[in-house]
Design goal:
Elements (H helix, E strand, L loop, with lengths): L1 H27 L19 H66 L4 E4 L3 E8 L6 E8 L5 E5 L10 H8 L3 E4 L3 E4 L2 E4 L4 E2 L2 E2 L11 E6 L4 E4 L4 H5 L3 E7 L2 E4 L2 E2 L4 H5 L6 E6 L5 E6 L12 H10 L4 E5 L7 E3 L2 E2 L13 E5 L2
Antiparallel strand pairs: 1-2, 2-3, 3-16, 4-20, 5-18, 5-20, 6-7, 8-9, 10-11, 10-12, 13-14, 13-17, 15-16, 15-17, 18-19
Length: about 350
C-alpha cells in the first residue's frame, strides 16, 4: 500500500513539473508582464445639430452657385441681345446698301420719263404710267417691275388657236390688272391665227418656225426676263427656256444698240399707232403705246422715232409689237390709249399683267 502511494505521488510530480517550471519562469523573469488587446477605434456618430450645420453649409454653397449661374446667364443673354442687335443693324445696313444701286438706277431711268400719273403696286408687281409727248406724236409709257415672274402671262384669244378677242376682254376674262396687244396675226377662213412661232406655257402652239425675213420672237422666260431675237433653229430658242412669247417685226434695240430697220418698215406705213416693248438692264419692262388717227401713215410715230426714244430712255432690248388698230393699253379696267379704229380690235395674243 505504501508502495502504491509513492508511485502515485511520483506520477503527479512528473505530470505537473512542466507547468510548475513555466510558472516559476514567469514569476522570476525580468520585467513586468504586459497583456495587450487590440481594440477597435470608436468614432462617435454626429449629432443632429452637426448634421443640420453641414446641410446648411451645402445649401449655402448651392445657393451661391445658383446666384453665380444666374448672373452668368444674365450676362450671356445681355451679350447675345447686344450681338443680335448689332448683327440686325449690320444686315439692315447691308440690305440698304445692296438696294441703293438699284434705287439710284431706278431713279435715274424714272427721271427721264417724268412724273407718273397712275400707279399699281402690290407684292407681285409695280406698274407706273407716264405720258409720252415729244411733239411729233403722243402716247403712254408703262414701266413694269415684275416682283413675281408669274405676274405677267400671255393669253390666247378665247383660249384656242384661231380665236381672237380685244385686250379689254382678255384682261377682264383673266382677272388681270393691265394688258397690251402682243404678236402679229394672219386671217384665214374667218379665223385669226398667231403669226409664226408662238409659245404658251412653255409649249409651241403650232411648232417652231425658223425666223425668216424680218420676223423675230419675243417673250418671257421662267425667271421673268424678257427674251427675244431671231432663231434659225428650235434648239437656240429652247436654250432660252421661253415660258411664253409671240412673233412680229422688227427688232429695234439689242444689247443697248439700235438695230437696222428694214426699208420696208420705214415707210409701210411711215407713221402709225405703235406698241413696243423693251427691258432695262435691271429687267424692268418699258412699254410704249402711241396713238394715231388711222393707219394711212399720216399719224402716230415712225419706228425710227420709237427706236430713238427707247434708246434715249436707257432701254437695252426693244421689239416692235403689232400696231395700227391693234395697239391697245388697258390699266385698272379702262382703255388708256385712243385706238385708231375707234374701238378695240380683236387679236389672238395679249400680254397680261396681274396684281
Amino acid at each position: 500500500m505504501i508502495i502504491e502511494k509513492k508511485q502515485i505521488n511520483r506520477f503527479f510530480l512528473l505530470a505537473t513539473a512542466p507547468f510548475l517550471g513555466l510558472l516559476l519562469f514567469l514569476l522570476f523573469s525580468s520585467g513586468p508582464i504586459h497583456l495587450e488587446m487590440e481594440t477597435a477605434s470608436y468614432v462617435p456618430e454626429p449629432t443632429l445639430k452637426q448634421q443640420t450645420e453641414t446641410l446648411k453649409q451645402h445649401l449655402d454653397k448651392a445657393d451661391q452657385s445658383v446666384k453665380v449661374t444666374i448672373n452668368s446667364i444674365r450676362k450671356t443673354a445681355a451679350l447675345y441681345k447686344q450681338t443680335t442687335t448689332a448683327m440686325n443693324s449690320i444686315v439692315s445696313t447691308a440690305q440698304t446698301q445692296a438696294l441703293r444701286p438699284e434705287y439710284i438706277y431706278n431713279r435715274r431711268i424714272t427721271a427721264k420719263l417724268g412724273s407718273a400719273f397712275e400707279r399699281v403696286d402690290s407684292d407681285r408687281i409695280r406698274i407706273e404710267l407716264y405720258r409720252v409727248n415729244p411733239g411729233t406724236y403722243q402716247g403712254y409709257a408703262m414701266k413694269v417691275k415684275l416682283k413675281d415672274p408669274s405676274a405677267m402671262q400671255m393669253s390666247l384669244g378665247r383660249d384656242h388657236i384661231g380665236g381672237a378677242e380685244t385686250t379689254m376682254q382678255a384682261v377682264s376674262r383673266h382677272g388681270a390688272v393691265a394688258g397690251i396687244n402682243a404678236g402679229g396675226f394672219a386671217d384665214n377662213g374667218g379665223k385669226r391665227y398667231p403669226l409664226s412661232t408662238t409659245v404658251m406655257n412653255g409649249k409651241y402652239l403650232t411648232g417652231f418656225q425658223s425666223s425668216f425675213k424680218d420676223l423675230f420672237f419675243v417673250g418671257m422666260d421662267g425667271s421673268g426676263k424678257l427674251i427675244g431675237g431671231k432663231f434659225s433653229n428650235q434648239s437656240e430658242l429652247d436654250n432660252m427656256k421661253p415660258r411664253f412669247g409671240a412673233t412680229f417685226v422688227p427688232v429695234l434695240l439689242k444689247n443697248g444698240q439700235p438695230m437696222p430697220i428694214p426699208e420696208k418698215w420705214k415707210v409701210s406705213p411711215k407713221r402709225a399707232p405703235r406698241t413696243v416693248i423693251g427691258n432695262y438692264k435691271d429687267d424692268q419692262l418699258l412699254i410704249i403705246v402711241v396713238d394715231g388717227y388711222n393707219e394711212n401713215g399720216s399719224s402716230g410715230a415712225t419706228l425710227q422715232e420709237l427706236q430713238s426714244k427707247m434708246y434715249g430712255l436707257g432701254v437695252m432690248d426693244a421689239y416692235n409689237l403689232d400696231g395700227g388698230g391693234s395697239s391697245s393699253l388697258i390699266v385698272n379696267g379702262r382703255v388708256v390709249n385712243n385706238p385708231s379704229d375707234g374701238n378695240l380690235r380683236p387679236v389672238p395674243t395679249h400680254f397680261l399683267f396681274y396684281k
